[in-house]
Amino acid sequence: MATSIVFTSALPEKLAVGVASAQFSHVLEEGIDYEIVSTTDCHVKVGADPATASNATGSQYVKAGVPYPIAKQGGSDRVAIIRDAADGSAWLSKVGTVR
Question: Quick one: three-class SS letters along the chain?
């Protein structure tokens, strides 16, 4: 059986990226691929609610304007984000489902 990917833009959630860790309200769904795009360099953490991002350790560095893919790992994961040096905005979007 062939695998097909269905692309969708049903989600986008916008979040302010600042000096304190902020968490997207969307709970990641099993079998869905997501991506984050930010207007500022930032650090992203995917984990159990409440997820807390850090610009010191334990979070993934993401460059401004570069899509960061997130594959659902299981459970009830959420995405948290914090700025690297400057405030900005970030968007969490669904990019596809594997059927």
Answer: CCCCEECCCCCCEEEEECCCCEECCCCCCCCEEEEEEECCCEEEEEEECCCCCCCCCCCEEECCCCCEEEECCCCCEEEEEEECCCCEEEEEEEEEEEC
